[in-house]
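Quick one - inputs below.
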Amino acid sequence: MKLIFLGTGGGRFSAINQRRMTGGFRIDNLGGKNYHIDPGPGALVRTYQFGLDPRNINGVFVSHAHTDHYNDAEILIEAMTRGMTQNAGYIMGAKSVISGYEQWGPCISAYHQSKSRVLELEDNEVKAFQNCLIKATPTNHGDPVGIGFQIDYRDFKISYTADTSYFPELPKAHEGADILIASVLRPGGKAIRGHMCSGDFVKLIKEVNPKLAIMTHLGLKMISNNPIAEAKRITRNTGIKTLAAFDGLSLDINFNNPGRPRLTSLKDVDAPYHGSNNNLSRFERKNTNKLAIKHGEIDEIPPAYRKHQD
Ligand SMILES: [Zn+2]
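Output:
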């Protein structure tokens, strides 16, 4: 299994200024399936930039109705369903995201929900998808029905707090996690409302006792405060291997030994395509056409008509 971080910036200002990216993360090859979690602004672009293919996802999960978590969900669903021409994949998320709740959401249109299986989840509810179980975990955040998750794949448990402050029931909800991924907005011991700081994360790690802890969704203060050094301090304090995610981080996880992942920093594979150089543009013209035909992506002929012509 791989965990791939397509954005590790958190909070509205991190998202607006893109000092770190906000594409969320992917869980790849979980029993042969791929999932995109909290696809914020840029998720589609970052997917290509780091050499992945949005068409090969089997599910999209959105934790709550904040832009930095849901912005690119619909376009990823279009990729998953081949431009809404096939029934495919799962859409999982909070009530606010799927149906709307009070002033929040819905964040995914009925049209975009029409080609996939939809799992709307509330606190502590457990549902099955593909070869996994997903349990919704409670949060204490701006969106009153926002959720995190614990995914159970053959007894291997990946927990994601999503955005939340620390509260007494949180450790219980993530009990048994092998990997604990958390939104940690701020360094040190002073949290802002609805979010965790490093001090809260330390408490959570000690109580949950995972084999690997990862902090992401880092706010501006955390980013300018050397998050890698912060993660090392947390590791020393808790005795649990803790990583500060960065944009393009790929972790190879061995189910038998999740505490020792292999780290890779993914390269920006798109850089040559976006140049203004003449040769590149010739190269692009040639290859774009070939790839579009290979994937059956021909905008000029709507899919309904194409069938008759074939
Ligand atoms: Zn939020």
